[in-house]
Structure formats: C-alpha cells, structure tokens
Fold this sequence. Notes:
The chain is built from 14 helices and five strands. It is mostly helical. It has two domains: 204 residues, Rossmann fold; 95 residues, Tyrosyl-Transfer RNA Synthetase. The protein is globular. The relative contact order is 0.14. The structure holds ligand 1. The site of ligand 1 has 25 residues, from β1, α1 and α8.
Amino acid sequence: xxxxxxxxxxxxxxxxxxxxxxxxxxxxxxxxxxxxxxxxxxxxxxxxxxxxxxxxxxxxxxxxxxxxxxxxxxxxxxxxxxxxxxxxxxxxxxxxxxxxxxxxxxxxxxxxxxxxxxxxxxxxxxxxxxxxxxxxxxxxxxxxxxxxxxxxxxxxxxxxxxxxxxxxxxxxxxxxxxxxxxxxxxxxxxxxxxxxxxxxxxxxxxxxxxxxxxxxxxxxxxxxxxxxxxxxxxxxxxxxxxxxxxxxxxxxxxxxxxxxxxxxxxxxxxxxxxxxxxxxxxxxxxxxxxxxxxxxxxxxxxxxxxxxxxxxxxxxxxxxxxxxxxxxxx
Length: 330
Ligand code: TYM
C-alpha cells in the first residue's frame, strides 16, 4: 500500500479536465492505497489574494469530491488551511528552494504574464507549497493532470535535497500518477489550449452544468469547414473535440466518427450532438448527487472536521520528525 496525495484549488467548480486529469484517479486509488485528498485554499491566494467566495468555492469542491465517489471514511478528505503543519513545512522547504529554479518553472512564467501587477512571492514558491502538501504525508503517488508534471519534478528535487542536506533517507520521492500510459490533458472548447477555470465560461464543461448548457457549449465549440483530403491530420480544434470524445464516449463511437473524418464524410452537427449526448449521460449521475449532497450542511461539516483531524495527526508526526532532523529543540 502506498500513500497518495492530491489537491484541487477552489477557484470554481470542477470541470471535465479536473475530473479526467485527477479526480477519476482519486476514486480508483482510494480502494488500494492510503489516500489524502484536499482542497488547496492556500494556493488560491497566489492568484486571488482577495477571494470573494472562498467558503462557497471550498464547499462546492467538497461536495463534488463526495459526489464523484471519494469516501471520507476510507480516504482522508480535508481543507489545506485546516492543517497548518503544511505551512510550517513550506517555510522549512523554502530555505532550500532556489530563486533560479523557481523562476524557470513554466507555470510561473505563464502566470506572471497574466498577472503583471501581482507577481507575489507565493506565486514564485507555489511549487514549494505543493511539495509541502505532498511530503507532509510522505506520499509517493500523486494523481494529477499533465500540466502538473513539472511541479512533481520539483517536489522530487526538494525531497532529495532535504535528504542530502540532512544526510537522512527521510522523504520518499513522489511521482505524478495516472492509471493510463500518460498524464491527461483535456483541451478547452475554444480551439486551443487546455480546459481551465480561468479560460472563459465557454471553454470548460463543468460537472454541474445542465444538459442545456452542455449542448449549447458543445454546439458552439470551434470547428472548421471539414476535412478535404482522406486521412488528413486533424487541426487542433477538431482534435480537441475528439480528445473529449475519447474521455467520455465508448471506443465504438470514437472509431465511428474517426472513420467518418478519415473518409471526409463527417458532419460536425452529428458529431457534436453525439458528443453532447455522451457528456450529458456521463455527468447526469454526478449532477444528481451534487444537488443531493450540497443541502446536507451537517454532513459536510462532519466530513471536514473528521478530515482535518486525520490529516493533522499525520502531518504533526512529520513535522515533529522534520524538526528533530533539522535540529530544533522538541
Ligand atoms: P488545479 O485546481 O489547477 O487543478 C486540479 C487538478 O486538475 C488537473 N487539471 C487538468 N487535467 C487535465 N486536463 C485539464 N484541462 C486540466 N485542468 C486541470 C490538474 O492537473 C490538477 O491535477 N497545483 C494543483 C493543486 C495542488 C496539488 C497539490 C495537486 C496543490 N497542491 C499537491 C497535487 C498535489 C492544481 O493544479 O490545481
């Protein structure tokens, strides 16, 4: 049995990218491993220093985690800021994280272009906080989407560096994980880039979207005038819709439309209708559970309290050991 850690920032509702990149793996992993899943509210402050709707966003991710099948009696499900030991480990790891390597991080370079007026130290040290989330539970498996690959490399660097510096084999090396052959990247609906919460409302399909919203978004998704040569390479916008179909539809459906595309016989209207129907079918059960659970405030409070206690216990043990290794008085 290995230890698994993963988290999601509460910056909005869960979309298909979050689900296929991370959450579907959480649900499967909890059957075999010791799992810690959390809501990364500290991380939110790197991009949203004044978070207008933090409590509601935390609640909605919690509800969605539960609706997707995370069992709080099996996994440890908690809110990051309920476990302040994470912040202490972040402080300690920051002493051995170098400015140059943090500045070279791709997500940092992308983020500073988007928020030129707020290039804060938290943004620069985002990978250190993420490493603290993982190392505080000494996890080895980290289910995440493709965009988090570099952050995991950095977590391994910080773990190795700590071990070398204090001459102990203390932190294990964490690895990004997915049940398939490679990490997932679900594209957005606007023709380029990944599906994301900050890429505009029509770029992402949320698990809680109604059937009407799903149909509308898919029907509006960017396409072109159709293939002109047999077996031609699909342009990015079309390939993106096929990638979403691969995630939600049966392999027969995917092959059927792939063949039509290759023979230049595809009609995008039919293709999109099938895609929308399959997404609606896929999300319908989740949508029902989401609305069921979100009314049960007492249950949600109990889940958060229980998760905070379990996560805190394990995190406190790590911090005690780390303090001792570094040489603080206990
Ligand atoms: P966040 O909220 O940006 O993303 C949460 C998870 O969803 C995945 N994801 C995607 N996967 C595939 N295709 C997409 N279009 C897509 N969009 C998002 C992300 O890869 C991620 O797995 N830094 C993390 C939060 C975090 C964390 C951690 C994760 C904080 N500490 C420790 C693991 C371990 C993040 O990107 O959140």
